[in-house]
Write a structure and sequence with these properties.
This protein is α+β, with helices and mostly antiparallel strands. It has five helices and four strands. Helix content is 42%, strand content 11%.
């Protein structure tokens, strides 16, 4: 049973927080962050996903998104399934000093849950919050962009490469196409 907020309106705009099980710091490696970026790009181009804001932290993402074709839950499910598969392949095949420990954590989590396959990388919930006002949207966007600053990684939000802050704050095109 999911413990997070649910996506009830498949066309709605949501603030989502997909999280890695046990808060494993997967996204400390550029290789894994780039899988997320490329997968989001694919979802934007091929699955009618509209991305308004994002940040990739060490063990979770924050996204403000909606679906143009009413398949938001399906798109998020497919995104998580593909990124998990790709990242697990990377853990097995790329230089990874934490390989055994990470695979053990993901295998252990899968064993605790009937819905999972051999490895579970993402938690099943996304903590989806419907964006219902412009004020709430701006609050969540600021929260997203301030995450790397609060983590001590950068001094200003626009300095963090794996975020929409630079695109939105400085009006400089980023790696991902953002919605209007």
């Amino acid at each position: 049973m999911s413990t997070g907020y649910q996506i009830d309106d498949q066309y709605g705009t949501y603030f989502l927080t997909p999280t890695i099980v046990d808060w494993v710091d997967v996204f400390t490696r550029k290789f894994y962050r780039d899988i997320v970026i490329n997968s989001l790009d694919y979802c934007i181009k091929e699955k009618a996903l509209v991305l308004y804001g994002y940040v990739i932290m060490s063990n979770h993402l924050h996204l403000i998104i909606r679906s143009q074709n009413g398949t938001l839950s399906d798109t998020i499910r497919d995104f998580k399934k593909f990124t998990a598969s790709s990242i697990l392949e990377g853990i097995r095949n790329e230089p990874e000093s934490r390989r055994e420990w990470m695979l053990h954590r993901f295998k252990w989590n899968a064993a605790q849950n009937q819905r999972s396959s051999e490895h579970q990388m993402w938690t099943h919930e996304n903590k989806a919050e419907l964006i219902f006002t412009e004020k709430f949207y701006q609050q969540k966007l600021k929260y997203i962009h301030e995450n790397p600053v609060r983590a001590g990684w950068v001094e200003r939000p626009e300095e963090y490469v794996y975020s929409s802050a630079k695109s939105l704050m400085l009006n400089i095109p980023g790696r991902l196409k953002l919605g209007d």
